Amino acid sequence: MSGKPRLTYLNGRGRMESIRWLLAAAGVEFEEVYLETKEQYDKLIKDGFLLFQQVPLVEIDGMKMVQTRAIMSYIAGKYNLHGKDLKERALIDMYVEGISDLMQMILMFPFSPPDAKEKNLESIKERATNRYFPVFEKVLKQHGQDFLVGNKFSWADVQLIEAILAVEEKVPAVLSGFPQLQVFKTKMSNMPTIKKFLQPGSPRKPPPDAHYVETVLKVFKK
Question: Is the model's pTM score more than 0.85?
Answer without folding.
Answer: yes
